[in-house]
Fold this sequence. Notes:
Elements: E1 2-4, E2 6-8, E3 15-17, E4 19-25, E5 30-37, E6 44-47, H1 48-54, E7 62-67, E8 73-85, E9 88-97, E10 104-106, H2 108-112, E11 115-120, E12 125-130
Parallel strand pairs: 5-10, 6-9
Antiparallel strand pairs: 1-12, 2-3, 4-5, 4-8, 6-10, 7-8, 8-9, 11-12
Amino acid sequence: MILPDVVVGSSDDRRLLPLIQVRLHGPRRSVPLTALVDSGAEQNVLAEELARFVGISLDDAEPVVIVGTGDHHLSGLRTEIELQLGRHRWTAPTIFCRDLNREGILGQAGFFAYFNVTFRYVREDMIIRRVRN
């Protein structure tokens, strides 16, 4: 599966961000969301408001602290969720965070464990293939 990067910024200040659209499934509904494919992130991180919107209860979720660049700390709640990319659906450990400044980040444990990702910067795309056991 080849998914193009989304180009963000003006032609003078062009940045390529590896953004893809996945679907979050919950008990009440499912919703598409745009997420950053981040090989440096250990975990998936999604905006907490998405959990409420699709009906995912965070009452029994594990409280965690995310430590980012510059020793920046964010509080979150980790639980298992259902995600879908194309026709591939999987259960992924994911942290829901109130202070996330984007819809989502796909990291090592919740995305790269299920997909092989090749970033091709010069071609301005990435290749995502499901891991086959």
